[in-house]
Write a structure and sequence with these properties.
503 residues; Rossmann fold; eleven-stranded mixed beta sheet; 19 helices; 14 strands; 41% helix; globular; ATPase_Atu1862_pred; HerA-like; ATP-binding protein; nucleotide-binding
Length: 503
């Protein structure tokens, strides 16, 4: 079904129409400096398409929450845990409800993590729920920055990965990305390059004008026109908009943002007691105590410093006898490995959360009287991932395996076990694990999710996946100089079958 959305008027007086079905397949990029009318354009697009398609708005400033009053959008407050946001996103796709993810009140890093968790939940929805969704991301340069800023690298990595999935791989899952940014130079190129439709607004910097002209197929000398565009005027191009660059003026909207542009208003008459109003604290104010910096000590005379340097060095005291018995680290590590082995012998251990396994681990360590302080949760996750790989002593001591451990440290905790399982097969020359074995190592029953993990490793540049003439899978690790033997990805999980037979 072809649905045309009226976004405004073209220069020739005709209505500027946007093919909604084509937009769902080709995505949209909006660029314009602050005050150029990007949010107005997005609001017009959302209002006109609301009756036809499910919508999801990633709103960093809380400007689009007013859509809820007239169009029935559900406002999702992002002040929740990442796991809760992921579950909410999955239910949104299941029930086909239009929502606004309100990120207002969070700092930049929290916004990036919340948006990544929400987009990840929508991206990982079950195949039966892959209905078309228009995903609008305002201020996209916050979530897909071209360079690292003041936020942590981990937050930037997961946010950029979520935006890349939306724009690069979201089409097959029904996700149509519409991203708006103030500056193309601040937006990651691999995210911007996936859009086939463009609406370019007013911009002043030469680098942004040049990129806008390149995206629209215009000559560099025509880029100056972007400086002269009025507020709410854009140049449109793309299969869903126009085959040639088309200037359009965005039409009016029915809802209003909570924040508006500043307007000049006359100043009130200055009161006679203005000085008292400013410098006299009100009754509700608490007078904070004045903290003065301590007076610095007088400088030490040079003669005293020289005298101290000329004194003989005092004899070091003999170390005191330790109060507690010295712990044998080798014995402690052996005890920890035995406990981890006992946990992994349980067939259901792979499908339990790390928190439950950690509690079981602590109880078993106390029963086995493993000496020393309890292992922290982060260290436990790392040791559990290594134990799941199942390497023997000779392989564990090899330089190649140590390099594999270093590579796995760059991955999230829940993916390290899967990576080490495949790396172990490559180091030992064993057959590539099947999808069922990889899914079990990840704690899932979904073979599709296991294959997606290998794709993620390949996108990170850690491995290369190929298929031989017999349909068997081979995973090569260029950094390790090794690869797995061919393995059938459709084989059942041998460990799970043995456990079921034993029961």
């Amino acid at each position: 079904m072809k649905v045309g959305i009226d976004i405004g008027a073209a220069t020739n007086g005709t209505a500027a129409m946007l093919d909604l079905e084509e937009l769902l397949a080709t995505r949209l990029l909006v660029q314009g400096n602050s005050g150029s009318g990007k949010s107005h354009l997005l609001r017009r697009l959302l209002e006109q398409s609301a009756p036809w398609v499910q919508q999801c708005v990633i709103d960093p400033e809380g400007d689009f929450v007013t859509l809820a009053d007239k169009f029935g959008h559900v406002v999702v407050d992002a002040a929740r845990t990442e796991a809760e946001l992921t579950r909410i996103a999955a239910r949104i796709r299941q029930h086909r409800v239009s929502v606004v993810l309100n990120l207002e009140g969070l700092d930049v890093e929290q916004q990036m993590r919340a948006a990544a968790a929400f987009l990840g939940g929508m991206f990982d929805a079950e195949r039966d729920h892959w209905y078309p969704v228009l995903v609008v991301v305002d201020e996209a340069q916050l979530f897909a920055p071209a360079v690292g800023g003041e936020v942590a690298d981990e937050a930037r990595k997961i946010s950029l990965g979520a935006m890349t999935n939306l724009m690069c791989r979201g089409r097959k899952r029904g996700l149509a990305g519409v991203i708006a940014t103030q500056r193309l130079a601040k937006l990651a190129k691999n995210v911007a390059a996936e859009a086939s439709n463009f609406l370019m607004g007013r911009t002043f910097l030469d680098i942004d004008m040049a990129r806008a002209a390149d995206l629209l197929g215009m000559e560099r000398r025509q880029a100056e026109m972007f400086r002269d565009l009025a507020r709410g005027h854009f140049v449109a191009l793309g299969p869903a908009l126009a085959r040639r660059p088309l200037p359009v003026a965005i039409g009016p909207v029915e809802t209003a943002p909570r924040s508006t542009s500043p307007k000049l208003t006359p100043l009130p008459e200055a009161p006679e007691d203005a000085r008292d109003l400013i410098f006299t604290p009100g009754p509700e104010e608490r007078r904070a105590p004045v903290r003065r910096a301590p007076t610095p000590p007088p400088p030490t005379p040079t003669a005293e410093i020289l005298a101290q340097l000329s004194q003989p060095r005092p004899t070091a005291e003999a170390p005191a006898e330790p109060i507690f018995a010295i712990i044998d680290e080798a014995e402690r590590e052996a005890g920890i490995e035995r406990v981890l082995g006992e946990i992994l012998e349980d067939a259901d251990a792979s499908f339990r959360s790390d928190a439950i396994l950690y509690q079981d681990f602590l109880v078993r360590c106390r029963i086995r009287r493993v000496p020393g302080e309890p292992v922290p949760l982060t260290v436990f996750r790392r040791k559990l991932a290594v134990a799941r790989a199942g390497v023997d002593g000779a392989v564990a001591a090899s330089e190649t395996w140590q390099q594999a451990l270093d590579l796995s440290a760059s991955l999230p905790d829940d993916l390290q076990g899967v990576f080490l399982l495949v790396a172990q097969a490559a180091v030992t020359g064993a057959a590539c694990p099947s999808d069922a074995a990889l899914a079990r190592a990840y704690g899932s029953h979904s073979a599709r999710r296991a294959r997606r993990l290998l794709t993620y490793f390949e996108e990170q540049g850690l491995c290369v996946v190929r298929t031989d003439f017999h349909g068997n899978r081979v995973v090569a690790f260029p950094d390790l100089g090794s690869e797995t033997a061919p393995g059938d990805p459709n084989l059942p999980d041998i460990a799970a079958d043995q456990s079921d037979a034993a029961e």
